[in-house]
Amino acid sequence: MEKLNFIKVRIEQHVFNLTLARSDKRNAFSPTMVNEIAYALNLANSNPDIRLVQIEAEGPVFCAGMDLKAFEDPTVDIGNPAIPKVEKSLAEIFACLDKPSICVVRGDVIAGGFLIALSCTYLFALPHVRFSLPEVKIGLFPFQVLALLMEYMPERKAMDLCIRGDSFAAGDALDKGILSGILDVEETALVELRETILKNAPLAISRGFVALRRLKEQDYDDKYNFLLESLADLRKTNDFKEGMDAMRNKRKANWKNS
Hints:
Blueprint: E1 7-12, E2 15-20, H1 31-46, E3 52-57, E4 61-63, H2 68-72, H3 90-95, E5 101-105, E6 108-110, H4 113-119, E7 122-125, E8 130-132, H5 143-149, H6 155-164, E9 167-169, H7 170-175, E10 181-182, H8 188-199, H9 202-215, H10 223-234, H11 238-248
Parallel strand pairs: 2-3, 3-5, 4-6, 5-7, 6-8, 7-10
Antiparallel strand pairs: 1-2, 8-9
């Protein structure tokens, strides 16, 4: 893996851990940081040994959104010539993942930080965390965040969050359907979710993400044929045979991701 300036990664027991590591700038993402996240997630996606991606952050703020100075003036950004440049938003980058992802928020989520938090399959936060979309206070609007919010709540409520620009607590985020859960001190729910995901068939889950993405492109009349074909293809895999044999013999499945 190439040297990374603004994120840290480690692989542990089938989990690809990605940590935002630009805490001196409240983990605001620059073009280089976006490139590094895209590079790391592409590695995770292409590695059959990786079954889960977990996103965290260093420092008291999870992510303060876009580093406006770095995007307006490239000389402010610290480049990483070893990493390919991408012309995609963070939401697009995360949408390409074929594996489940968990975002663990231990600090405040501000503005474009929502793009990372809401793009993950699951989102957990500590009780003290606050969420805010202050863009309208400086003459901007969180267009991309709005698109993600509408996957979690009705259009009017999503627009209300963007228009008001107020901050809200983790408990409110849970009520709005944004959070999967609020973590206790032991982070029990996070541990249990990781264990559940890792014991299930990784290839089947990956195919599910591919199907979900492609369903949005299918005409109404073609959807069920597409899903039946996807199921038929999955029934031909080694993991399906292994899963059936494990069930019959009442043993733990040994997944090969093939």
